[in-house]
Amino acid sequence: MTDGSDAKTGAGLVESRELDVGLFYRDFWRRRPVVWRGCGDAFLSPALDWSDVDALERRLAQEPQGRADVHRREDGQVLFVNQAQHVLLELADACKALAGLFGWEQCTADLSVTRGGGAGIGCHFDHSDNFVVQQRGSKNWRVGLPEHTSKERQRKRMLETKGFVPAGRLPGAPFEVELMPGDVLYLPVFAPHEGTQGTEAASPREGGSVSVSFSYNAESALNRYLRPLLRRLSEEEAWWEPLPHGGPDPDRLEAALVRALRAVSRESAGGQPCA
Length: 275
What we know:
Helices cover 28% and strands 21% of the residues. It is an alpha+beta fold. The protein folds into 2 domains: 15-218, Jelly Rolls; 222-268, no CATH class. The strands form 2 sheets. An 8-stranded mixed sheet has the order 1-2-9-6-11-5-4-3, covered by helices on one side. A 3-stranded antiparallel sheet has the order 8-7-10, with no helix packed on it. The longest helix is centred in the C-terminal third of the chain and has 19 residues, at 250-268.
């Protein structure tokens, strides 16, 4: 496996047949995609089969979906289950194991199923780091880099701006790769990507695709610190006392703000992924 330092869009993706978490964080985390060939067992074992998908669809048709968000195309060729760890125990177990392996405080899973002529959901980018694990069939991916999404669009995605559509824009010559069963593709946060049905086979089932995306959802400092910071500031005299007639003392306010920020930062430390 190369260190990825010369990887550019338009070239083949860096590939490996061994999952090395330390190397991953050093060379790829939130910088560039990478493919692990045949490493799917490190993420989910045993792999899901078509019988598992059929059983899940029957159950979803009969039972409340709970916290999972289920989307089906009317012709039955596409099934997408967001937060699928809430409806498949094996995915919940895998999320827990992956959180421990990568040093995350949480992990979620999405299930994507296409049958025959099913296509993907179009080019987009996420505010999460995603690990696509191909289960059955194949899927073709076109991928860019995080910097191919503008900072303003990244900001709106992280703030979950109302009405914002996270459509992605691929570079002129994106990375291209076909995932086969057991392959894993890492998609960095903000990197535009598009997955479509792999090569068709003799029957819809043989030409279908089943994949699971395990995700670590990115969190902003605003989301993590703002509320506890406000609570801390409410205990700082410089921030709760009546403002003087001549205006506040900015040095005193700044000193109190730094104390409060350091306090909440220390309280929330731990359980963060290596950077």
